[in-house]
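Sample entry (440 residues):
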Amino acid sequence: MRLSRYFMPILKENPKEAEIVSHRLMLRAGMIRQQSQGIYSWLPLGKRVLDKVNKIVREEQNRAGAVELMMPTLQSAELWQESGRYDAYGKEMLRIKDRQERPMLYGPTNEEMITDIFRSYVKSYKSLPLNLYHIQLKFRDEIRPRFGTMRSREFLMKDAYSFDLNKEDAVHSYNKMFAAYLRTFHRLGLRAIPMRADTGPIGGNHSHEFIILADTGESEVFSHRDFVNFDIPGEDTDFDDVAGMQAIFDKWTSVYAATSEMHDEQAFDQIPDSDRLSARGIEVGHIFYFGTKYSEPMGAKVQGPDGKEHLVHMGSYGIGPTRLVPAIIEASHDDNGIIWPASVAPFDVVVINMKPGDEACDRLSEDLYAKLNKAGKDVLLDDTDERAGTKFATADLIGVPVQIIVGPRSAANGEVEVKDRKSAARDVMTLEAALNRVAG
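Predicted structure, serialized as tokens:
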């Protein structure tokens, strides 16, 4: 992508409405644009990051055996009335009527709809276990949306729903998602701590929030420091291994961790002072097991091996990609801008042509651009006529992991300068060496 042809509206000044670092940097980097209170457009740079987050989320859901589908954003009120949640959910639900005066709603979540899909097609225990997920826009009319896309009214959600014959099998499904979430957040460059949490309006009796620690977190959290050293499940994890999944869950819940709503001061006080961790946290995922909460009122049953009908046991598992993007920024930035983990960076490398029109600079920049693209890298070529300081500031602000700087003096010698965004280390090397470093 050539910057001269790209749409990336950089702001030089800090927006007054931005209260936290991620909101400020996302606005300044031209990633998002507020359209109304708590509702945002994702501009090209932000969309690239969001797409890469979604890709990792999908890969780990698929690895754990979940199957993707797509449900509509607008839902019939009838399903919610059937489950008993239509009146109980509260003002966060946006209720509307269509032209035939039928009550509809902009879905804040999809338990009812997925239960209806399940009961319409699945009749036998032989089709279980089943986990269905989608990544779709949701709407919750927050009374106080804030912090940009961290807490917005319209947001993107990956929500998965598991169906099992009994509680024992449902716990295994829960443990699979638990392990998948640990892997997902690790690949996004985050260390997430699973914490016992309140189930809220989703319901159920077993729930964990996945929290990353950040000074701008919305709530106070309490945990043991051992979480920092726990191993993340590997790529070769066998999600069908019941004992293995239970062992991962047991390990990651073996020491104290709880949100403020579930905090037990007496239990926390028993932890040695040096091992206590009290901090602010950002929720990046939430998983629930709620048994027959929805299958019972909605009649979601399967025939069991005994020939009798059984209510299925369900769980739901949420990750908010539009919330994850600012969470990653909160965890990884400096005074100059964003520092993206390589896995979700909008571009792998930015080639900065310091003097467009200079024959050597143009030739070397174009050569790098072509060869890196051919190697499968996402490349941004800064071919604009901006001043050197502006080019450097832009590259640092948008947080691309590697900058290759092509200046007249070095280009004349067939050399470039390679800067690592995170460490700020700079090395002068040949074109071939730079290509091997980035593409190799």
